[in-house]
Amino acid sequence: xxxxxxxxxxxxxxxxxxxxxxxxxxxxxxxxxxxxxxxxxxxxxxxxxxxxxxxxxxxxxxxxxxxxxxxxxxxxxxxxxxxxxxxxxxxxxxxxxxxxxxxxxxxxxxxxxxxxxxxxxxxxxxxxxxxxxxxxxxxxxxxxxxxxxxxxxxxxxxxxxxxxxxxxxxxxxxxxxxxxxxxxxxxxxxxxxxxxxxxxxxxxxxxxxxxxxxxxxxxxxxxxxxxxxxxxxxxxxxxxxxxxxxxxxxxxxxxxxxxxxxxxxxxxxxxxxxxxxxxxxxxxxxxxxxxxxxxxxxxxxxxxxxxxxxxxxxxxxxxxxxxxxxxxxxxxxxxxxxxxxxxxxxxxxxxxxxxxxxxxxxxxxxxxxxxxxxxxxxxxxxxxxxxxxxxxxxxxxxx
Amino acid sequence: xxxxxxxxxxxxxxxxxxxxxxxxxxxxxxxxxxxxxxxxxxxxxxxxxxxxxxxxxxxxxxxxxxxxxxxxxxxxxxxxxxxxxxxxxxxxxxxxxxxxxxxxxxxxxxxxxxxxxxxxxxxxxxxxxxxxxxxxxxxxxxxxxxxxxxxxxxxxxxxxxxxxxxxxxxxxxxxxxxxxxxxxxxxxxxxxxxxxxxxxxxxxxxxxxxxxxxxxxxxxxxxxxxxxxxxxxxxxxxxxxxxxxxxxxxxxxxxxxxxxxxxxxxxxxxxxxxxxxxxxxxxxxxxxxxxxxxxxxxxxxxxxxxxxxxxxxxxxxxxxxxxxxxxxxxxxxxxxxxxxxxxxxxxxxxxxxxxxxxxxxxxxxxxxxxxxxxxxxxxxxxxxxxxxxxxxxxxxxxx
Lengths: 399, 399
Fold this sequence. Notes:
Chain A is of the alpha/beta class. Chain A has helices at 5-9, 19-27, 46-53, 69-81, 96-108, 124-131, 152-158, 181-194, 252-264, 270-279, 286-307, 331-340, 376-397, and strands spanning 31-34, 91-95, 114-119, 135-140, 163-169, 197-201, 227-232, 244-249, 321-325, 347-350, 352-353, 367-371. Chain A has 13 helices and twelve strands.
C-alpha cells in the first residue's frame, strides 16, 4: 500500500507533539501549568448548556448542510451589531474554523498554488493548506517589530501567478498583533490589484486591549467579493469543544462551491449548533468582563517577560497569545527540560515552541508562545516557573 | 480570483439537489413522504440525551484529537462482541463517517490516483474522492443481478498501477446488497495480490435481514494491515445529527498519518462524543427490535415494487435502501413531476434518483433509491403514492 506524498511531507502538530513528555511528568506526580494551547479556562456561558438540556427532539436528525437557520440568523445579527453586514446565505456553518479553512483551500487551490501567510502563523494552517495540495509562501515577521507584516513591497514581492490568497489571523495567533485599518486598506488594495482572495481568520475579534480599535475585513465595502471571513465560537465564548465555526463570504461562486463540500459531509452536529445559536444571543457586554480578565493576564505575562534578561518581545494588543524570543538556542530542548528535568516544589509549566509556527526552516527556534489562558494567580505562578526554569537551564547549558 | 479545478468539476449532492422543488411543494401545502434520504425515524436511545444532560463541566474544552477515551473503549468492546478485535489506538474518532473517508483519501491518494468503487455507490463518495484529488474507477453492477459486484475478473480488469484501494459499502447503499464471506475472501485476496487497501464502510453493519450472516472485513486475519473500516453512530443508533464516526485500522503508518489530520482540526465535538460513548454501552439486543422493524419495512417496499409492471429489483438483504429500475426514461424528471405536478388528496412522496450514484455517465437514469426510513403505515402510503404517481406519469409521457 502507498501513502500520498502530501501526507508524508506533513508533520505532526507542533502544539501537540510534546504531550508525551507532559504525560510522563504528570505520571511522576508533577503539576504542570499549561500555557501551551489556546484552551481558555473562562467558563462557557450557562446559556449554552441550558440550550442543550432543553433539546427535546426524539430523533437526533441531520440538519441543513449550511447550518441551522437559528444559528445563522443569530450570527448575522451579531455581525450587524459589529457593523459587518452579511445576509443569511453568506454564512455557512462548519466543524470549527478548521473545516472552514480546509473547505476554503479545497475551493481555491490547485496542486502547487500558493497562499501568502505572515509567519509565525497558527501552525495548523500548514495542515489545512498542505493536505489540500497548496503551498505556503511565508512573509516573515520579527519579534523586534511586534510581528507587524503589512509592508506593501514585502507582500508584493511574494506574489506570483500561482498566488491565490493572503491568509492572516487578526488579532494574530501566535503573535497577538492587531492590524490597523490603514494596514488592512493596503492589503485590500493589493488583493484587488492582483486579483487575490483575502482569508481573514477573525476568531479572536473581541479580544483587543487598551481600547485599540478592531476592524474586520468584512467592513471594507470594495472587497466584499474577495473577503472570506473564518469564524468560530471556540475562543469567543470559551466553547472550544463545540467545534462550531463558519466561513462567511459574499462571493456567490465560492458559496456555491463550499456548499458542495458541506453537502458531502451532510451537516454539523445538531446539539452543539443549538448551543452555539444560544451563545450568539448573548449581549455584547458579555465580553466586557472577559476582556478585562484577558488584559490583566496579558499584562502579567508581558511584565514577567520584560524582567527577564535577554527576552525580546513587544506588548501585543490582541488575542490571548504572546510570542517572545528567549536567550536560548532551541526552545524545544528548553521545553523538554522544563517537563523532564525541572520542577519547583513539584511544579513546572508548558509553553509552545514557535519554530513549528514558521514555514521558513530555522526561524523561530529561540521563540516561545505563551497562551494566557489561566487565571491571574495560576498565570503568575506559571510565569515564575518559566523564569526559574530558564535560569536553571541557562546555568546548565552555558556552563 | 480563481477556483480549483477539482471543485469546479464537482457536482452538488444528487440527494439534496431536489430540495427546492420539495420546499415549493410544501409551501403550497402539499404533504411529502420523504424516502429520499437515509434519515431514520427510529427514536435516538434516551441514553444519548441523558449523557448530554449529565455533562456538567464548566468549560466546554477541546478533547484529545483521536477522540475521548470513553468512546474509544466503548467502541473497542462493541467490536469485541462482534468478534472484531481492535486495540484502542486502532480506533480514531471523526466528524462522522464523512470525515473518516475524507481523511483516508487525503492519506492514500496523490492527484489522479484511482479508487475502485462498485456503482451505484453512496453519492457523497464522489465528493470525498474528487475533492482530495482522487479518481473513481467504477465497477458497474446491475439491478437484474441484485447489484452483486464481486467477480474476480471484473475487479482485476479495473486495476492499474494507479489503483490505491477498493472502497465498498457493506451492507450496500443505495443497493442494500450484503457481501457473502466468500466474496469478501476473494476481494481480500485481490487486495493482497495487488497491494491495495480495502476501505470497508460498514455503517449499516446491524441492518441485515432474513438471518443472513454479516461478516466485517475486520474479521479477516490476513488483511488487517490493509483494511480500513469506516464507521458511524448515525444509522446504527439513529443519531445522524451527532456527527460522530470513526476510522478503524491496524495499519500503524496510516494511523500516524490520520492523526496528523486529526490534530489539525483539534478534536470532535465534546458533548456529542459523550452521548456517543453512552450509545455504545447499549446491549446488542437493542438492535433486535430495530431490525424487525426495518425488515418489515423492506418487505412493504419490495412487495409494492414487485406489483408494479415494468419495475426491476431484487429483494435486498441489508441496510435500509432498495434500488429499483422503473419503466421511465429519466427518474429525475419523474421526481420533479411527483413534487410539482402530482398529488393524491394533497399528498406526494420523494425518492432519490440513482443517476447521481453512478460514475459512468448515462447509467441509472431509470433507477430510484427508496430509503425505508418511515414507519410501516407512512411507508405504505408513500409506496401507494409512488404507484399512483407512476401511473399518472406514464399515462402523460407515453400518451
